[in-house]
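Entry, Tuesday afternoon. Goal for today is a structural model of the target with zinc ion bound, before we commit to ordering more compound. Inputs were pasted exactly as handed over by J.K., no edits. I checked the ligand SMILES twice against the vendor sheet because last time a stereocentre got dropped in transcription.
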Amino acid sequence: MIKPRKIPMRMCMGCRTRRPKRELVRVVRTPEGAVVLDPTGKKSGRGTYVCADNPACLEKAVKSKALERALEAPVSQEIYEELRRALEQNIKEGTDDRE
Ligand SMILES: [Zn+2]
């Protein structure tokens, strides 16, 4: 009997869709209380997610303060900028052929 491979699912704070974890970008509030980006998905702390391939989700989450609510901590503009850059990077890598 083959066990089905379990894919961890997480919910995007923008579109509220559950997706495989690796298709999302994780933001984590560390035990020290700092809010940071977690590209590896391995940091400890309270995590929240947005789609890695859709900037609209991030903007929605920014507007609704969904990340702040999920993390129960303020999220600085710098973190949002980092997120935007991470998403841009992701989208580029996902769609472009190497030049
Ligand atoms: Zn989304």
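Helices lie at 55-64, 66-71, 77-95.
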